[in-house]
Write a sequence for this structure.
């Protein structure tokens, strides 16, 4: 029974976080500096997710050839900047990873 | 863009992320059962909490017999970054009735946000009154994928799936989304600050490093914008 209450509490907390600013919009006047931060949310948040995935292997920074995901990720970054195509980027990253794991 | 087109665009945009989310959902299902959570509760959690990393942590803490308050607090910390997404989409959803805001907030995950945001910020989509259907499409697509994959994990039950490297689809798709958005030095600096900080703080518990790193990216970006003016 405790488990269900715990799940419900976690669900409410998670929803409250996601709903917070959406609910508050229109009911408060955010300061200018706050508005200036918002355009950077997608790039900052998503880069913060990606960087450790590429650079860290079991919690340690690994820049050498043994870190296949880093080099495959760099290939994907290059392809993304040249062609701006989602499927091509993902495909190139997977192909690079596949090749690197076999040489 | 009409509703159907917007919904389809959101759905289409989230598809590559489902490749990476699938194995993650299976892992959650298996870990939940191994932690002694009954199958029905494990499945219900995917609807009630609906947050990948938080569910995995929750299952592990339940399995370890951690105190309830600590567990709930930890789940809150892990999901703190979603407040940033909430602030980011709030102006776009401002005109909607409350039921829409509640629905889209419930569906607001890393993946749904990432898949929809280039379309929400780019061009005339923000001015379209139906732009929120893009977010609904990506959110519902991810929700369905998460339910199916956690169900698969709960059914497989005892053994973790072989690591095929499919989870790499997540960072790759995020790269495909972020890199084309970086079209100025200020944006590049914001990305570098966030990425560098995330690596430096990766050891912090409850994904706090992620949250602080994202904040660092916002501050660097805003500070440099001001300087450039």
């Amino acid at each position: 029974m405790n488990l269900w209450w715990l799940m419900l509490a976690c669900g409410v907390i998670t929803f409250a976080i996601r709903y917070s600013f959406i609910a508050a919009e229109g009911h408060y006047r955010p300061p200018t500096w706050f508005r200036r931060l918002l355009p950077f949310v997608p790039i900052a948040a998503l880069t913060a997710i990606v960087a450790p995935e590429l650079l860290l292997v079991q919690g340690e920074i690994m820049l050498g050839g043994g870190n296949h995901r880093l080099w495959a990720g760099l290939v994907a970054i290059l392809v993304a900047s040249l062609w701006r195509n989602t499927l091509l980027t993902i495909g190139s990253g997977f192909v690079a990873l596949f090749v690197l794991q076999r040489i | 863009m009409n509703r159907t087109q917007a919904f389809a665009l959101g759905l289409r945009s989230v598809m590559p992320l489902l490749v990476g989310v699938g194995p993650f959902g299976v892992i959650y299902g298996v870990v939940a059962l191994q932690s002694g959570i009954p199958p029905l509760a494990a499945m219900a959690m995917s609807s009630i909490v609906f947050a990948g990393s938080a569910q995995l942590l929750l299952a592990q803490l339940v399995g370890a017999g951690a105190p309830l308050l600590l567990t709930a607090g930890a789940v809150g910390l892990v999901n703190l970054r979603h407040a940033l997404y909430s602030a980011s989409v709030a102006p776009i959803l401002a005109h909607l009735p409350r039921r829409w805001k509640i629905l889209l907030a419930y569906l607001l995950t890393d993946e749904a946000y990432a898949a929809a945001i280039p379309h929400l910020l780019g061009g005339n989509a923000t001015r379209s009154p139906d732009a929120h259907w893009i977010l609904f499409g990506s959110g519902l697509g991810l929700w369905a994928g998460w339910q199916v994959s956690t169900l698969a994990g709960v059914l497989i039950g005892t053994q973790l799936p072989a690591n095929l490297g499919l989870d790499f689809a997540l960072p790759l798709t995020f790269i495909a989304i972020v890199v084309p958005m970086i079209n100025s030095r200020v944006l590049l600096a914001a990305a570098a600050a966030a990425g560098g900080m995330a690596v430096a703080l990766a050891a912090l518990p409850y994904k706090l490093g992620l949250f602080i790193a994202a904040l660092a990216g916002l501050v660097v970006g805003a500070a440099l914008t001001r300087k450039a003016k």
Remarks:
- Chain B has two domains: 3-169, 182-229.
- Residues 3-34 of chain B form the longest helix (32 residues).
